[in-house]
Every structure is written in C-alpha cells, then in structure tokens.
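Progress note, project year one: complex with coenzyme A.
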Amino acid sequence: MSAAFDSAEIRSVDAIDTRMTDALADLWNRALPADLAVTAAFVRYNVRPSAGVQRRLFVGEAGGVLAGAALATALYGEPAVNAHGEGWIDLVAVAPVHQRQGIGRALLAAAEAWLAAQGCTQVCIGAGPRPFAPGLPDPNDAVHFFAACGYESFETAWDMAANLAGYTPPDTVREIAGVVRPATPRHVDDLLAFLHREFPGRWHYEAQMFIADAGRLSDYMLLWTERGIDGCCLLTFPDSVRPIDRYYPYQLPKPWGQLGSIGISADRRGQGYGAALLDAGLRRLHDNGINGCVIDWTNRVDFYARFGFERYRSYSMLARPLP
Ligand SMILES: CC(C)(COP(=O)(O)OP(=O)(O)OC[C@H]1O[C@@H](n2cnc3c(N)ncnc32)[C@H](O)[C@@H]1OP(=O)(O)O)[C@@H](O)C(=O)NCCC(=O)NCCS
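Model obtained:
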C-alpha cells in the first residue's frame, strides 16, 4: 500500500527552465529502462510553445531533490485534434527510490485536476501534440499503477523498424501516374491545404507546428498528381528539428532515421500511390545513409512488413474519463 506521501508536497511549475528540463531528462532516465533514454534537448523540444497549447508541470520534491514529475498538456481551438475533449499527461515518472510511496498517484491527481479545470473531459497517457510516446511503452510495470488510478487501455500502437542499408523496392511498388519529390519552402501553402483537406486533425496541426519550429520543408516528401498534391510523408534525419530520440532507435544500426506520418487523399487510396510514396521516402533515407529506420505509431503492421519492417516496440494507449 502506498500513502506515505502528503499530496500537499506537490508543486506546480508554469515556466519550465533549462535546469528543470535537465532534471526532467535525468528523472526520466532513472525511472525508465535504458532503451527509452531521452536527451535534455528532446525534453526542451517537447516543452517548446505550440499554438493553442497550455502546459503545466507538477513536481514532487523530497529533501529539496526532484522525486517525481507529471507534465500535463491542454490544447485549445483545435477541435479536430482533440475531438473527444482529450487532455494529455505527457510524462509521469517517480525516481526509483521514491516509488510506491504515493508520489505517482498524487502527481497524477494534480495533473488530472488541472486538465479538468482546463475543460478536458478525458485524459490520455502520452499521445499529446509533442509526445514522448504514443502511450505507455510495453512491457512496463507502470501498467498496474495506471490501472490502480482508473486508466484502461483502448488500443495498441506499434513502432516498426528496418535496417535500410540494403533497401530495395518490394514488388508491391508499381508505376504511378504521379511523381514524388521533396517539398520546398514555396510549397508550404499547398502542403497545408492538402493536409487541411485530407487530414484535418493531428497531421495538419503537426505540419503547422513543424513550420513554426522552422523545420526543414524538404523533410516532407510530396506526391504530385495531375491535380496537385495527393499525398505526403514526413522524414526525420539526424539533423531534423524533431529529435530522433523521440523514436527510441537505440537497438538499431546507426545512423538513425524515421518516416511518418504518411497519407494519401481518400479518393486515391488502393491504387498504389501509398506504396510509391513510402518507397520514395525510404529510398531517400537510404540514399542519405540512414540505416536503422523507425516508422512510428501505427497499426498498419502488414503494410509496412511488405517493405521489410518488423515490429519494434508497442505502446498501450491508456485513457480515463475526467469527472
Ligand atoms: C509509474 C510510476 C510513475 C508510479 O509512481 P509511484 O509513486 O511509484 O506510484 P504510487 O506509489 O503513487 O502508486 C499508486 C498505486 O499504484 C500501484 N502501483 C504503483 N506501481 C506499481 C507496480 N509496479 N506494480 C503494481 N502496482 C503498482 C500502487 O500500489 C498504488 O496502489 P494502491 O494505492 O492501491 O496501493 C513509477 O513507477 C515510475 O516512475 N515508473 C517509470 C516511469 C514510467 O513508466 N512512466 C510512464 C511513462 S509516461
């Protein structure tokens, strides 16, 4: 039984400075296994301002040292992104020596109360606008903690991975009536219009955030047909604005890369465009020397398996309603 911890010892922090991001990275790295390590730079990226986002960090201290933390995120004015009233708890971690003393529960309760006060009607673990992960990485004893705190798993998300060193296009890739090219800065409006039309939720929001973060436009690959953009996919290289540690590629051969999101216009699916776009993205990563490549946060295991990708890591997507 836990309960040694007095919830009054939880403090809320609105301005997250560099000292705190360093402490958060250190806390995460002590609480989670080494194959889920993060850099302080990644934590700083994840607490950058984003349009419509409000964040609040809750910390528990013991003897003046950070014993645990929970980071909560609410998003306003983007109903297509959180259509079910979701708010997110991006991370909750308690240092190993302080676990099982009620700190995690007190942090979660404080973060949930803040999200409820922001008008959120449900809370998800991970999966926010700047996620550390799409959910709880499996396997993880913390699943019992979240069950004790009222969370249920509603889906499993997969990261797939492959070594692109010897990548060759599979038979499933055929000629298409279109071309795939890296985007350039003059394509910003076309890209956003395509995403607004076809993927008006998270992917459109992510592209706006990527542009606001001064992301390199050529990290987007665009599928052009006779009527304009009909598909896009986003790549991550070691020097991209999105830190590669977001994909935890450490068991894969370096250099590391990532692909996703990837999407085709609804009325053009099932005609080989997706395979052609994916192939062009993978060839570009391969041609740039990328070996270990992650395709993250997907349930299309069979589609990516055709391109040599295997299951790499799974996440339990956890949520609970807020009163
Ligand atoms: C998950 C975590 C935050 C829990 O923090 P904690 O302070 O140890 O948890 P608490 O003491 O508040 O426990 C609350 C309840 O969960 C239960 N619980 C916590 N960890 C558990 C475990 N490993 N196995 C079974 N039950 C567990 C406690 O027994 C308690 O239940 P009770 O009130 O019925 O006794 C902590 O274990 C941790 O930092 N894990 C690694 C980080 C992580 O995986 N975070 C999720 C990714 S965002």
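The pocket of coenzyme A is lined by residues 1-2, 31-32, 91-94, 99-105, 126, 136, 140-142, 144-145, 148 (CB under 6 Å).
The first strand starts at residue 10 and ends at 13.
No further modelling is planned for this target in the current period.
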